[in-house]
Design a protein that fits this description.
about 350 residues; alpha/beta; 5-stranded parallel β-sheet; 14 strands; elongated
Length: about 350
């Protein structure tokens, strides 16, 4: 059993033969598949209730997946982006991560074969690997963690995302035309108390679109401090709701402090909206709100990581540049800023942005 951080785990990938079920599917004399182990199905359902996805990586005949859908649809529907083929497990895991839009280090593989686990450990060392007997320990790692409404709905939302992806593949037109057809709407405003747990979850679980890696405990502490305000962003489209997909902590200056600068210690967005303009729209909305409030400068704390290149590119495209000698910078982070005079960047034309106060008026 390799060590893993439960906060980073977004998807558990299950082997089939010897793991999900006892026998070898391709050796069955009929189309009937082995019946899954009840304790494994219970584990998959327990993880789903906590917002953890499940997928399949099995070195077997691809027809096994078709047979699973035909004979045990209630089992097949538990798995997103399954990979059943004779390719290496490491390649299957890469494909699963790519299909779900998450990093490979957000995956954990459960496999009865020491060889398969070793192959993944060698080629994808950031992926956690477990034997089937380690599953109870996996479940225990999630005990006591707060479960938000977004977490409970995550599996269904990823299923909806599969529908979006399929529609995008069938769509006749450009990527921008498809996004416009999706009728995406971003609603942004000050976070309500009920939304705070989701903001904390985004701080802990997002990496691709996370500016600073601020811990949930520190975020909770700062959000309750004078001069700070927490904002959230919700997104919908013609397929349904994404839920709360973004959180930003803003330092507007404490008592007696200058409010000419808005500083953002944390900007975090779900990887599910990567490539759809939501991160840019949220950032640009914050910049516009800062100017409306009388601020003359806008700053963001950035801690560069291997995962957040997309966020770094976004901040640069928004005109933010390193500000030397600023409070808040640390040896592994920097403060980026820009003046708020002149024309500010605008969100993509296919994404409609609404202020929550205006939407509720």
């Amino acid at each position: 059993m390799t060590a893993f951080d439960a906060d980073r785990v977004k998807c558990v990938v299950w082997d089939l033969d010897g793991t999900l079920w006892d026998d070898i599917a391709v050796e069955s004399p009929t189309d009937e598949l082995p019946f899954p182990r009840p304790e494994m199905l219970d584990a998959i359902d327990a993880l789903a209730a906590r917002g953890v996805l499940s997928s399949i990586a099995s070195r077997s005949a691809p027809a096994v997946l078709d047979r699973l859908a035909a004979t045990r649809p209630e089992v097949r529907e538990r798995f997103l982006a399954p990979q059943v083929s004779w390719q290496d497990k490491s390649e299957s895991l890469r494909r699963i991560a790519d299909s779900l839009g998450i990093a490979v280090d957000a995956l954990v593989l459960v496999d009865d074969s020491p060889y398969e686990r070793a192959e993944v450990e060698a080629l994808l060392p950031a992926v956690g690997t477990l034997a089937p007997e380690d599953v109870p320990a996996l479940l225990a790692a999630f005990e006591g963690r707060e479960v938000t409404p977004e977490s409970r709905a995550r599996v269904d939302r990823y299923r909806t995302e599969e529908t979006r992806r399929a529609e995008g593949e069938r769509f006749h037109g450009s990527r921008e035309e498809f996004l416009s057809w999706c009728a995406m709407r971003l609603t942004v405003g000050a976070a309500t108390p009920e939304e705070t747990p989701r903001a904390l979850e985004l701080a802990a679980r997002t990496h691709r679109l996370n500016s600073s890696g601020l811990t949930p405990d520190r975020l909770r502490e700062l959000a309750a401090s004078e001069g700070y305000e927490l904002y959230t962003a919700r997104m919908t489209d013609r397929f349904g709701s994404y839920g709360i997909i973004g959180a930003a902590l803003v330092d507007r200056g404490g008592a007696g402090a200058s409010t000419s600068t808005w500083s953002v210690p944390l900007l975090a967005l779900s990887c599910r909206v990567a490539g759809r303009g939501a991160a840019a729209a949220f950032l640009f909305w914050l910049m516009g709100r800062a100017r409306q409030a009388g601020a003359e400068e806008f700053r963001v704390t950035l801690r560069p990581t291997d995962a957040n290149l997309e966020m770094r590119i976004l901040l640069r495209q928004a005109g933010l540049r390193r500000v030397d000698g600023t409070e808040g910078a640390t040896p592994d982070s920097a403060v980026l800023g820009r003046a708020l005079h002149g024309e500010l960047p605008k969100p993509p034309p296919y994404l409609h942005v609404t202020d929550r106060e205006d939407a509720e008026a």
